[in-house]
Amino acid sequence: MKVHKQGSLVGRAIDLSRLSSYNDLLSELERLFGMEGLLKDPDKGWRILYTDSENDIMVVGDDPWHEFCDVVSKIHIYTQEEVEKMTIGMISDDTHSCLEEAPIIMEASKSSSVGQPDYSPTAVRV
């Protein structure tokens, strides 16, 4: 499993089968990126998102651990500011459905292959 941190050129690999919970995951990510105490505390300004098997961007921790492990394809560490930039405003018109009112996160996924990045926008409602 690849993990990419905003501002880092190189991703890191993590083996989810060695972990048993989100707490274990956050501890391992903090260790891998030298961010001890920064990822577990939301007030520190970092957010953990992931790309699932359908290429949607989701928030880490929203699903039961075993379900997360089944669908995660890549993990992303972003600053809160970057997540806010990716979020397109909420629709407040009461005539729209609940799904339409949810914020949308757009991500330009970058291929790790040699050459130019492959930018393909992906939208997800969170």
Automatic annotation (TrEMBL):
Know the name of this protein?
Answer: Auxin-induced protein
Instruction: Give the main localization category.
Output: nucleus
> Would the keyword Nucleus turn up in this protein's UniProt record?
yes
Q: Which domain of life is it from?
A: Eukaryota
Q: Which GO terms describe its cellular component?
A: nucleus
List all membrane-crossing ranges. none
Summary of subunit composition and partner proteins = Homodimers and heterodimers.
The reply to whether tRNA-binding figures as a keyword in the UniProt entry is no
Please name the InterPro entries in this protein's record.
ARF_plant, AUX/IAA_dom, PB1-like
Where in the numbering of this chain does the PB1 domain appear? Answer: 1-82
What does the UniProt keyword field contain?
Auxin signaling pathway, Nucleus, Repressor, Transcription, Transcription regulation
Known PROSITE patterns for this protein? PB1
- Which biological processes are named by the entry's GO terms? auxin-activated signaling pathway; regulation of DNA-templated transcription
Q: Identify the Gene3D superfamilies for this entry.
A: Phosphatidylinositol 3-kinase Catalytic Subunit, Chain A, domain 1
Q: Where in the cell is it found?
A: Nucleus
Cited function: Aux/IAA proteins are short-lived transcriptional factors that function as repressors of early auxin response genes at low auxin concentrations.
